[in-house]
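Thread: Newbie trying to understand structure tokens

Hi all, I'm a second-year student working on a class project, and my supervisor (Dr. K.) asked me to get a predicted structure for one chain before our next meeting. I've only ever worked with sequences, so writing a 3D structure as a token string is new to me. If someone could post the tokens and maybe explain what I'm looking at, I'd be very grateful. Here's the chain:
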Amino acid sequence: MNFPKEEYDERIARVRAEMSSRGMDMLLLFGQEAINWTSGFYTPAHFAYAAFGLPLEGEPFLVIRYLEEKAARVTTWVEDIQTYWDHEDPIEATRRAVESRGLSKARIALDKQAWYLTADRYDRLKAALPSATLLDEERLIDLLRIRKSPLELDCMRASARIVEAALQGAIEATREGVTERDVAAAMAFARLKAGSDLPVDGVLTTGERTLEGHGPWTDRVLRRGDALHYEFHGIKNHYWTRILRTGVLGEPTDDQWRTANTILAAQDIGLGMMKAGASAIAIDAAMRAPMLEAGLKQRHAYTNRLGYGLGLNFRPSPGEFIREFTPSCDFELEEGMVFHMIMAANGLGYSDTVVVTRDGIEFITKFPREFLVL
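---
Reply by user tm_fold:
Sure, no problem. This is what the structure looks like when written as tokens:
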């Protein structure tokens, strides 16, 4: 397990308190983050059906593919692990597990937003448990895991050192005549050597490709004067931190300097406002205003998120998007929330991962916040 049993006990106690207040007899979870956060279970083969059942009282269970049982035994504290073979129906295995707890007529809450609870699986589960009342758990788990524990923050600080090593590796490999793929290889080597988990990917674009937003690396050859966009992540025990730095290979233009400085100044305003109890919508507005005044953005089109929750994540999701900085966001910051704060314009931008404290923020990523001139 990635954490002591006591960490999971505290999480389960919080979950059950919420279940009781909402009239839920059982949680049935399918999302990889929800399953891992509550049970610890992990396998890189999470394309296979898995379900975690947590009764309000009594022992929980896992329903997983037979080939993943050994992985479960070393990653989870859950003792009741029920398996299915590839030729068997995992929904039927889930029905048996629920009935074994005497809960076939219970109020069962499902994480309906989970990628892996497909429409077909939901319909078949409903048919398999006709006497049960199936509820939406309304992102109960996501809401609980927004605020990170001290052990979770330790994982994120470790992943920050990893992403910083990755960024430094990319910078050192950047020169005229190499390809984006060469730079990516240096980034990946540095990151893995620093201790990162999978997956190894990220956004690495150069030249005119920096306008692509989320472009992958290619065989494009770097030339003098190219803009550089390096947005990478580090992962420790499945906890992510992310960082973006941009710059130029050669001499920046006056417009590039102006853009970079405007972005940094605007973002610093918002970062300076962040603390427990602060209004997210006020922070968002304060960061957008300088960009609009400088003409870098048009008000009608400037609605993309300027920050989002980050922490325990598995692909395909790149973040915790239940709390985002947008023009319509409506929430207060809480101590222990972690955000990836990101701003960009004209192919240039900056981001850092920060944790909210009582009096301000702690930069989890600590790479110099400056325009790269290589």
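A couple of things are worth pointing out once you decode it. The longest strand covers residues 227-236. The two ends are 42 Å apart (CA to CA). Feel free to ask follow-ups in this thread.
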